[in-house]
Amino acid sequence: MPTITTTVTSTAASGAATTVTTTEATPEPAPALPAPSAPAAEVDPGIYLDVVAVTGCGGYIASEVIKQLLEQGYHVKGTARKVPEPGTELASTKYGHLYRMAAALPGKFEMFSAYLAEGDTGFDEAFKGCKYVFHVASPLGLWQKDPYEEVVNPAVAGCKNAIKFAAKNGVKRVVLTSSIWSTANLMVPQEGINVPKNGTLYTEDDWMPNTDEAFVRSTENPFAAYGASKPIAEKAAWEEAKKLGVDMVTILPGVVFGPPVAKGSITVDIFAGMFKESNPLMVAGMFPAVDVRDIAKAHICAAVRPEAKGRYQICHQESVDQKWFDDLTVKHFPQFGKVSTCSNAARRCMDNSKGVELIGPLIDLEQTFLDTARALLAIGDLNADGSLSKKGTHSPFVEDRATETK
Fold it and tell me: What is the dihedral of CA 394, 396, 397, 398, to 10 degrees?
Protein backbone atom coordinates (compact mmCIF):
# COMPACT_ATOMS: atom_id res chain seq x y z
CA MET A 1 0.00 0.00 0.00
CA PRO A 2 1.43 3.50 -0.82
CA THR A 3 2.65 5.53 2.13
CA ILE A 4 3.12 9.18 3.01
CA THR A 5 6.11 10.16 5.14
CA THR A 6 5.93 13.42 7.09
CA THR A 7 8.75 15.03 9.08
CA VAL A 8 7.98 17.72 11.67
CA THR A 9 10.65 19.63 13.62
CA SER A 10 9.69 21.59 16.73
CA THR A 11 11.73 23.68 19.17
CA ALA A 12 11.02 23.55 22.89
CA ALA A 13 11.36 26.52 25.24
CA SER A 14 14.81 25.23 26.25
CA GLY A 15 15.99 25.62 22.68
CA ALA A 16 16.30 21.90 22.03
CA ALA A 17 15.04 20.77 18.63
CA THR A 18 13.00 17.62 18.23
CA THR A 19 12.34 15.93 14.89
CA VAL A 20 9.48 13.47 14.49
CA THR A 21 8.96 11.41 11.34
CA THR A 22 5.69 9.59 10.75
CA THR A 23 4.74 7.24 7.95
CA GLU A 24 1.07 6.62 7.20
CA ALA A 25 -0.76 4.36 4.78
CA THR A 26 -2.80 6.21 2.22
CA PRO A 27 -6.43 5.11 1.79
CA GLU A 28 -7.07 2.40 -0.75
CA PRO A 29 -8.78 3.64 -3.92
CA ALA A 30 -12.26 2.54 -4.85
CA PRO A 31 -12.27 -0.78 -6.73
CA ALA A 32 -11.91 -0.97 -10.48
CA LEU A 33 -15.22 -0.41 -12.18
CA PRO A 34 -16.93 -2.56 -14.81
CA ALA A 35 -16.38 -1.90 -18.49
CA PRO A 36 -18.31 1.08 -19.88
CA SER A 37 -21.90 0.41 -20.81
CA ALA A 38 -24.56 2.39 -22.63
CA PRO A 39 -26.66 4.68 -20.37
CA ALA A 40 -30.34 4.08 -19.83
CA ALA A 41 -31.60 7.04 -21.86
CA GLU A 42 -30.59 9.20 -24.78
CA VAL A 43 -27.44 10.90 -23.45
CA ASP A 44 -24.25 9.52 -25.03
CA PRO A 45 -21.43 9.33 -22.45
CA GLY A 46 -18.92 9.80 -25.28
CA ILE A 47 -15.40 9.46 -23.96
CA TYR A 48 -16.64 9.19 -20.36
CA LEU A 49 -17.25 5.99 -18.45
CA ASP A 50 -20.96 6.59 -17.83
CA VAL A 51 -23.36 9.41 -16.97
CA VAL A 52 -24.38 9.72 -13.31
CA ALA A 53 -26.15 12.29 -11.12
CA VAL A 54 -25.28 13.51 -7.62
CA THR A 55 -27.85 15.58 -5.73
CA GLY A 56 -26.84 18.31 -3.30
CA CYS A 57 -23.54 18.60 -5.14
CA GLY A 58 -22.06 21.38 -3.01
CA GLY A 59 -22.14 19.35 0.20
CA TYR A 60 -19.29 17.71 2.10
CA ILE A 61 -20.10 14.08 1.28
CA ALA A 62 -21.40 14.87 -2.21
CA SER A 63 -18.21 16.76 -3.11
CA GLU A 64 -16.07 13.76 -2.17
CA VAL A 65 -18.38 11.42 -4.12
CA ILE A 66 -18.04 13.70 -7.15
CA LYS A 67 -14.26 13.86 -6.75
CA GLN A 68 -13.95 10.07 -6.79
CA LEU A 69 -16.35 9.78 -9.73
CA LEU A 70 -14.37 12.35 -11.71
CA GLU A 71 -11.15 10.52 -10.91
CA GLN A 72 -12.65 7.41 -12.44
CA GLY A 73 -13.81 9.17 -15.60
CA TYR A 74 -17.54 9.68 -15.08
CA HIS A 75 -19.69 12.42 -16.56
CA VAL A 76 -21.27 13.82 -13.38
CA LYS A 77 -24.47 15.85 -13.37
CA GLY A 78 -24.73 17.67 -10.03
CA THR A 79 -27.88 19.26 -8.66
CA ALA A 80 -28.33 22.23 -6.34
CA ARG A 81 -31.23 24.47 -5.41
CA LYS A 82 -29.96 27.14 -7.75
CA VAL A 83 -27.25 27.12 -10.37
CA PRO A 84 -25.22 30.28 -9.68
CA GLU A 85 -24.31 32.73 -12.38
CA PRO A 86 -20.70 32.33 -13.58
CA GLY A 87 -18.33 34.77 -11.95
CA THR A 88 -20.47 35.35 -8.86
CA GLU A 89 -19.17 34.85 -5.34
CA LEU A 90 -21.51 31.89 -4.78
CA ALA A 91 -20.26 30.20 -7.95
CA SER A 92 -16.70 30.56 -6.73
CA THR A 93 -17.03 29.79 -3.01
CA LYS A 94 -19.76 27.13 -3.02
CA TYR A 95 -19.30 25.28 -6.29
CA GLY A 96 -16.01 26.46 -7.79
CA HIS A 97 -14.14 23.45 -6.45
CA LEU A 98 -16.33 21.10 -8.52
CA TYR A 99 -15.45 22.79 -11.80
CA ARG A 100 -11.78 23.00 -10.82
CA MET A 101 -11.71 19.28 -10.07
CA ALA A 102 -13.40 18.52 -13.38
CA ALA A 103 -10.73 20.53 -15.20
CA ALA A 104 -7.97 18.54 -13.49
CA LEU A 105 -9.50 15.05 -13.57
CA PRO A 106 -10.60 12.69 -16.37
CA GLY A 107 -14.34 13.16 -15.81
CA LYS A 108 -16.82 15.89 -16.71
CA PHE A 109 -19.04 17.99 -14.44
CA GLU A 110 -22.13 20.09 -15.06
CA MET A 111 -24.83 21.55 -12.80
CA PHE A 112 -28.62 21.46 -12.80
CA SER A 113 -31.18 23.22 -10.62
CA ALA A 114 -33.36 20.94 -8.49
CA TYR A 115 -35.09 21.42 -5.15
CA LEU A 116 -36.13 19.03 -2.38
CA ALA A 117 -39.80 19.89 -2.73
CA GLU A 118 -42.77 17.85 -3.84
CA GLY A 119 -43.68 18.73 -7.40
CA ASP A 120 -40.28 20.17 -8.33
CA THR A 121 -39.24 18.79 -11.72
CA GLY A 122 -35.56 19.68 -11.66
CA PHE A 123 -34.48 16.08 -11.12
CA ASP A 124 -36.16 15.07 -14.38
CA GLU A 125 -33.72 17.02 -16.53
CA ALA A 126 -30.74 16.17 -14.35
CA PHE A 127 -31.39 12.42 -14.43
CA LYS A 128 -31.82 12.08 -18.19
CA GLY A 129 -29.31 9.58 -19.54
CA CYS A 130 -27.98 8.63 -16.11
CA LYS A 131 -27.00 5.09 -15.27
CA TYR A 132 -26.74 5.75 -11.54
CA VAL A 133 -28.20 8.41 -9.25
CA PHE A 134 -26.57 9.27 -5.92
CA HIS A 135 -29.20 11.00 -3.82
CA VAL A 136 -27.09 12.74 -1.18
CA ALA A 137 -29.06 15.96 -0.68
CA SER A 138 -31.03 16.28 2.55
CA PRO A 139 -31.92 19.04 5.01
CA LEU A 140 -29.13 19.43 7.54
CA GLY A 141 -29.30 21.74 10.50
CA LEU A 142 -31.49 22.88 13.36
CA TRP A 143 -35.07 23.97 12.84
CA GLN A 144 -36.29 27.41 13.85
CA LYS A 145 -40.09 27.51 13.42
CA ASP A 146 -41.44 24.13 12.33
CA PRO A 147 -39.35 20.91 12.27
CA TYR A 148 -41.65 19.24 9.76
CA GLU A 149 -41.61 22.09 7.26
CA GLU A 150 -37.90 22.75 7.62
CA VAL A 151 -36.41 19.27 8.10
CA VAL A 152 -38.68 16.23 7.92
CA ASN A 153 -40.97 17.02 4.99
CA PRO A 154 -38.19 18.20 2.62
CA ALA A 155 -36.19 15.06 3.41
CA VAL A 156 -39.14 12.82 2.53
CA ALA A 157 -40.12 14.85 -0.54
CA GLY A 158 -36.55 14.85 -1.80
CA CYS A 159 -36.28 11.06 -1.55
CA LYS A 160 -39.61 10.45 -3.28
CA ASN A 161 -38.84 13.00 -5.98
CA ALA A 162 -35.43 11.48 -6.70
CA ILE A 163 -36.86 7.97 -6.98
CA LYS A 164 -39.80 9.14 -9.10
CA PHE A 165 -37.57 10.73 -11.72
CA ALA A 166 -35.01 7.94 -11.52
CA ALA A 167 -37.81 5.55 -12.47
CA LYS A 168 -39.03 7.84 -15.25
CA ASN A 169 -35.56 8.06 -16.78
CA GLY A 170 -34.68 4.37 -16.56
CA VAL A 171 -31.87 4.79 -14.02
CA LYS A 172 -30.24 1.44 -13.28
CA ARG A 173 -29.75 2.03 -9.53
CA VAL A 174 -30.28 4.74 -6.94
CA VAL A 175 -27.85 5.02 -4.02
CA LEU A 176 -29.42 6.97 -1.15
CA THR A 177 -27.44 8.60 1.66
CA SER A 178 -29.17 7.89 4.96
CA SER A 179 -27.51 7.76 8.40
CA ILE A 180 -26.91 5.50 11.39
CA TRP A 181 -29.66 7.64 12.91
CA SER A 182 -31.91 5.36 10.89
CA THR A 183 -30.83 2.37 12.96
CA ALA A 184 -30.21 3.84 16.40
CA ASN A 185 -30.82 6.89 18.57
CA LEU A 186 -27.39 6.93 20.21
CA MET A 187 -28.05 10.29 21.87
CA VAL A 188 -30.96 9.10 24.00
CA PRO A 189 -30.81 5.32 24.53
CA GLN A 190 -34.09 4.09 25.98
CA GLU A 191 -34.05 0.86 27.90
CA GLY A 192 -36.28 -1.75 26.33
CA ILE A 193 -37.12 0.46 23.32
CA ASN A 194 -34.08 1.73 21.47
CA VAL A 195 -31.97 -1.40 21.78
CA PRO A 196 -30.36 -3.66 19.13
CA LYS A 197 -32.48 -6.59 17.99
CA ASN A 198 -29.56 -8.93 18.61
CA GLY A 199 -29.01 -7.52 22.09
CA THR A 200 -25.46 -6.31 21.51
CA LEU A 201 -24.68 -4.24 18.39
CA TYR A 202 -26.91 -2.26 16.03
CA THR A 203 -27.13 -3.77 12.55
CA GLU A 204 -28.87 -2.95 9.29
CA ASP A 205 -31.88 -4.90 10.58
CA ASP A 206 -32.53 -2.25 13.26
CA TRP A 207 -34.66 0.86 12.84
CA MET A 208 -34.57 3.89 15.13
CA PRO A 209 -38.00 3.94 16.83
CA ASN A 210 -38.19 7.63 17.83
CA THR A 211 -40.20 9.11 14.97
CA ASP A 212 -43.32 10.35 16.76
CA GLU A 213 -44.37 14.00 16.67
CA ALA A 214 -43.43 14.65 20.31
CA PHE A 215 -39.87 13.53 19.61
CA VAL A 216 -39.61 15.48 16.36
CA ARG A 217 -40.83 18.69 18.03
CA SER A 218 -38.60 18.28 21.08
CA THR A 219 -36.91 21.50 22.13
CA GLU A 220 -34.72 19.75 24.70
CA ASN A 221 -32.88 17.80 22.01
CA PRO A 222 -32.15 20.19 19.12
CA PHE A 223 -31.04 17.30 16.90
CA ALA A 224 -34.24 15.29 17.35
CA ALA A 225 -35.93 16.43 14.14
CA TYR A 226 -32.83 15.74 12.06
CA GLY A 227 -32.42 12.32 13.68
CA ALA A 228 -36.07 11.38 13.18
CA SER A 229 -36.02 12.58 9.57
CA LYS A 230 -33.53 9.85 8.69
CA PRO A 231 -35.66 6.73 9.34
CA ILE A 232 -38.81 8.56 8.21
CA ALA A 233 -37.25 9.56 4.88
CA GLU A 234 -35.45 6.26 4.32
CA LYS A 235 -38.63 4.22 4.92
CA ALA A 236 -40.52 6.50 2.53
CA ALA A 237 -37.76 5.97 -0.03
CA TRP A 238 -37.97 2.17 0.28
CA GLU A 239 -41.75 2.31 -0.15
CA GLU A 240 -41.46 4.53 -3.23
CA ALA A 241 -38.69 2.40 -4.74
CA LYS A 242 -40.75 -0.76 -4.28
CA LYS A 243 -43.84 0.88 -5.76
CA LEU A 244 -41.99 2.14 -8.84
CA GLY A 245 -39.69 -0.85 -9.28
CA VAL A 246 -36.47 1.10 -8.66
CA ASP A 247 -33.33 -0.78 -7.59
CA MET A 248 -32.05 1.10 -4.51
CA VAL A 249 -29.23 0.73 -2.00
CA THR A 250 -28.84 2.93 1.09
CA ILE A 251 -25.62 4.05 2.79
CA LEU A 252 -25.77 4.80 6.54
CA PRO A 253 -22.73 6.85 7.64
CA GLY A 254 -21.66 7.50 11.20
CA VAL A 255 -20.40 10.97 12.11
CA VAL A 256 -18.26 11.93 9.12
CA PHE A 257 -14.77 13.42 9.41
CA GLY A 258 -11.96 13.51 6.88
CA PRO A 259 -10.25 16.13 4.69
CA PRO A 260 -12.86 18.34 2.99
CA VAL A 261 -12.71 18.89 -0.74
CA ALA A 262 -13.95 22.41 -0.03
CA LYS A 263 -14.99 24.49 2.95
CA GLY A 264 -18.35 24.31 4.64
CA SER A 265 -19.35 21.24 6.64
CA ILE A 266 -21.04 21.02 9.99
CA THR A 267 -19.11 17.96 11.16
CA VAL A 268 -15.78 19.39 10.00
CA ASP A 269 -16.62 22.66 11.76
CA ILE A 270 -17.29 20.70 14.95
CA PHE A 271 -13.97 18.90 14.45
CA ALA A 272 -12.10 22.19 14.04
CA GLY A 273 -13.73 23.71 17.14
CA MET A 274 -12.64 20.84 19.39
CA PHE A 275 -9.00 21.90 19.31
CA LYS A 276 -9.87 24.69 21.74
CA GLU A 277 -13.20 23.65 23.30
CA SER A 278 -14.66 20.28 24.20
CA ASN A 279 -17.85 19.27 22.42
CA PRO A 280 -20.60 17.80 24.64
CA LEU A 281 -21.53 15.13 22.07
CA MET A 282 -17.91 14.03 21.86
CA VAL A 283 -17.36 14.15 25.62
CA ALA A 284 -20.20 11.66 25.96
CA GLY A 285 -18.78 9.43 23.22
CA MET A 286 -22.14 9.13 21.50
CA PHE A 287 -21.33 8.41 17.85
CA PRO A 288 -19.03 6.15 15.85
CA ALA A 289 -17.06 7.96 13.16
CA VAL A 290 -15.99 7.31 9.59
CA ASP A 291 -13.78 8.95 6.97
CA VAL A 292 -15.59 10.86 4.22
CA ARG A 293 -13.40 9.06 1.66
CA ASP A 294 -14.79 5.72 2.83
CA ILE A 295 -18.34 7.06 2.58
CA ALA A 296 -17.78 8.17 -1.02
CA LYS A 297 -16.15 4.84 -1.83
CA ALA A 298 -19.15 3.03 -0.34
CA HIS A 299 -21.55 5.01 -2.54
CA ILE A 300 -19.67 4.05 -5.69
CA CYS A 301 -19.30 0.40 -4.66
CA ALA A 302 -23.01 0.24 -3.87
CA ALA A 303 -23.79 1.55 -7.37
CA VAL A 304 -21.48 -0.55 -9.52
CA ARG A 305 -21.57 -3.88 -7.73
CA PRO A 306 -24.61 -5.88 -8.84
CA GLU A 307 -24.55 -7.95 -5.65
CA ALA A 308 -24.96 -4.87 -3.42
CA LYS A 309 -28.36 -5.02 -1.75
CA GLY A 310 -30.27 -3.25 1.00
CA ARG A 311 -28.67 -1.09 3.68
CA TYR A 312 -25.01 -0.62 4.66
CA GLN A 313 -23.77 0.90 7.91
CA ILE A 314 -20.46 2.56 7.10
CA CYS A 315 -18.65 3.49 10.30
CA HIS A 316 -16.22 2.11 12.85
CA GLN A 317 -17.73 -0.21 15.44
CA GLU A 318 -16.65 1.90 18.42
CA SER A 319 -17.78 5.46 19.08
CA VAL A 320 -15.26 8.28 19.31
CA ASP A 321 -14.98 10.69 22.21
CA GLN A 322 -13.27 13.90 23.25
CA LYS A 323 -10.45 11.97 24.93
CA TRP A 324 -9.62 10.31 21.60
CA PHE A 325 -9.49 13.73 19.96
CA ASP A 326 -7.48 15.37 22.76
CA ASP A 327 -4.93 12.56 22.98
CA LEU A 328 -4.24 12.72 19.25
CA THR A 329 -3.93 16.51 19.41
CA VAL A 330 -1.35 16.27 22.19
CA LYS A 331 0.51 13.58 20.23
CA HIS A 332 0.57 15.22 16.80
CA PHE A 333 0.06 18.94 17.42
CA PRO A 334 1.68 19.82 20.77
CA GLN A 335 2.02 23.41 19.58
CA PHE A 336 -1.77 23.78 19.97
CA GLY A 337 -1.35 23.63 23.75
CA LYS A 338 -4.16 21.11 24.21
CA VAL A 339 -4.50 19.37 27.57
CA SER A 340 -6.27 16.01 27.68
CA THR A 341 -8.59 16.05 30.70
CA CYS A 342 -11.64 14.06 29.54
CA SER A 343 -12.23 10.49 30.58
CA ASN A 344 -12.82 7.62 28.17
CA ALA A 345 -16.46 7.42 27.03
CA ALA A 346 -16.10 5.43 23.80
CA ARG A 347 -18.13 2.26 23.47
CA ARG A 348 -18.60 -0.51 20.94
CA CYS A 349 -22.08 -0.11 19.50
CA MET A 350 -22.30 -0.78 15.74
CA ASP A 351 -21.91 -3.91 13.64
CA ASN A 352 -20.11 -2.71 10.49
CA SER A 353 -19.34 -6.14 9.03
CA LYS A 354 -21.68 -5.76 6.05
CA GLY A 355 -20.18 -2.38 5.16
CA VAL A 356 -16.62 -3.69 5.45
CA GLU A 357 -17.56 -6.57 3.18
CA LEU A 358 -18.70 -4.02 0.61
CA ILE A 359 -15.66 -1.70 0.59
CA GLY A 360 -12.89 -3.43 2.55
CA PRO A 361 -11.08 -2.20 5.69
CA LEU A 362 -11.96 1.33 6.80
CA ILE A 363 -9.40 4.10 6.97
CA ASP A 364 -7.84 4.20 10.43
CA LEU A 365 -9.30 7.07 12.43
CA GLU A 366 -5.90 8.37 13.50
CA GLN A 367 -5.11 8.90 9.83
CA THR A 368 -8.53 10.54 9.40
CA PHE A 369 -7.71 12.86 12.31
CA LEU A 370 -4.32 13.80 10.84
CA ASP A 371 -5.57 14.31 7.30
CA THR A 372 -8.50 16.44 8.48
CA ALA A 373 -6.39 18.65 10.73
CA ARG A 374 -3.73 19.15 8.06
CA ALA A 375 -6.37 20.01 5.46
CA LEU A 376 -7.95 22.58 7.79
CA LEU A 377 -4.55 24.17 8.38
CA ALA A 378 -3.76 24.16 4.67
CA ILE A 379 -7.01 25.83 3.57
CA GLY A 380 -6.93 28.38 6.39
CA ASP A 381 -9.83 27.17 8.52
CA LEU A 382 -7.41 26.67 11.41
CA ASN A 383 -4.72 29.06 12.56
CA ALA A 384 -1.23 27.78 13.36
CA ASP A 385 -2.06 27.62 17.08
CA GLY A 386 -5.19 25.52 16.52
CA SER A 387 -7.66 28.39 16.94
CA LEU A 388 -10.47 28.90 14.46
CA SER A 389 -9.89 31.26 11.57
CA LYS A 390 -12.57 33.95 11.29
CA LYS A 391 -12.61 33.54 7.52
CA GLY A 392 -12.60 29.79 7.64
CA THR A 393 -15.12 27.70 9.52
CA HIS A 394 -18.76 28.51 10.08
CA SER A 395 -21.01 28.07 13.08
CA PRO A 396 -22.91 24.80 12.67
CA PHE A 397 -25.81 26.16 14.68
CA VAL A 398 -26.25 29.73 13.42
CA GLU A 399 -25.64 29.89 9.70
CA ASP A 400 -28.53 28.78 7.52
CA ARG A 401 -27.28 25.61 5.92
CA ALA A 402 -30.42 23.56 6.32
CA THR A 403 -30.59 22.41 2.72
CA GLU A 404 -28.52 20.02 0.68
CA THR A 405 -25.24 20.35 2.57
CA LYS A 406 -24.77 16.82 3.82
Answer: 20
Catalytic residue among 230, 263, 323, 406: 230
Please say whether the beta carbons of 287 and 399 come within 8 A. Answer: no
The reply to whether 230 belongs to the active site is yes
Rg of the chain taking only CA atoms, in angstroms: 21
Domains of the chain with bracketed CATH: 48-259+290-317+350-362 (3.40.50.720)
Q: What is the pLDDT of residue 330?
A: 97
Quote the pLDDT of residue 398: 28
| pLDDT exceeds cutoff 90 at 394 | no
Q: What is the DSSP string of 160-178?
A: HHHHHHHHHTT-SEEEEE-
Once rounded to an integer, what is the mean pLDDT over residues 105-111?
96
Judged by DSSP in three states, 284 sits in: coil
Contact indicator for 243, 234 with CB cutoff of 8 Å: no
Higher pLDDT, 10 or 77: 77
**Alpha helices for 105-212 (secondary structure H):** 122-127, 147, 153-168
